[in-house]
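Why does this matter for the project? Reviewers at the last site visit asked to see concrete outputs rather than summary tables. In response, this paragraph embeds two records directly. Each consists of the residue sequence and, immediately after it, the corresponding structure tokens. Nothing has been edited or filtered.
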Amino acid sequence: MAVRLGINPIGWSNDDLPELGGEIPLEQCLAEARLAGYRGIEKGGKFPDDPALLRPLLERYGLELVGGWFSGRLGALSLEEEKRRLAGHLHLLRGVDARVVVYAETTGTVQAAIDTPVSARPTMPAEEFPAYGEKLTALAEWLAAEGCPMAFHHHMGTVIERENEIDLLMRNTGEAVGLLLDTGHLLFAGGNIEATTRRWRTRITHVHLKNIRPRVLRRLREEQWSFLRGVIEGVFTVPGDPEGAIDFDSFLRILGEGGYAGWLVVEAEQDPAKANPLDYARMAHAAVVSGLGPAGLELES
């Protein structure tokens, strides 16, 4: 199966924590992403929102835009209101031939609240999933018709965080709702990466390759840190880091068995002053590429 390898700019500059990499120019991020061997990059906060400006910038560095995060609020808004909120995002993605809307339900989220423990996140009662799933399916079908399919991102601090919540979401939505499987967020939430991937691999349309430092995660849980405090302290890292806990070779094999064909995006929000972005981008690229062949996956030429 052919896959494409991309990276997220959050290792260079963190949109929720401007003090992490705020001084790093976008051009440095793009140049180093290409130097490390990546073909694509997801959108970050420093990227122009005008496709007429973004397209030539990406072309200059030999990169393509994979897609971009959208902070969804379908839990609080009507379907038509959410469509209107998405209009500008769609205009940008289509203007640069990107085809992935990374959609997360952020109503009530605590992911950007640095003084709020991540354990204080909102939850969605099981009985509310059918109605929410119906609305989300309708939104996903609309996005697919617009040429930018949805990849739903389970995320720490949100109502869709844990393995059972991913299961409830998938069971209560139609095929148009693709799953973005994020290895780091799933392990962070105490989920089983192998079981979840096997269970929903026919619905996985996008992948974030993110690693976890167990020693930091233990402290986060014991001391009730916020999500952003965990980021600052280094809870996340990349594939290939010996401090990380995730077996990416095994994960890639499961994807290969399921016939995955799409983007594999390295994403690990770290303090660039502690974790040099180019070094970690190269580390991750080498680790992922080495695992593709044994997994029955190959890079698209």
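We now turn to the second protein, recorded in exactly the same manner.
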Amino acid sequence: MTKSRAFNRFQRFTAKMRRRHLKAWLPEQREGEPLAEARGADLRKRGWQTDQMHELETLDSGLQLS
């Protein structure tokens, strides 16, 4: 096998492994399994909740002053 052919085969092999690895991390619903939330989704949800609590607290403090 020539050097360039071996290099191309190795590149295809590593690309396939990279794709498999990335697909394994995707939140994909399989039959009978609930869809798991991604880590980023948890962070966004927590940030949204803290923003909502902050808005409620400022609204509540504004009503108390009135």
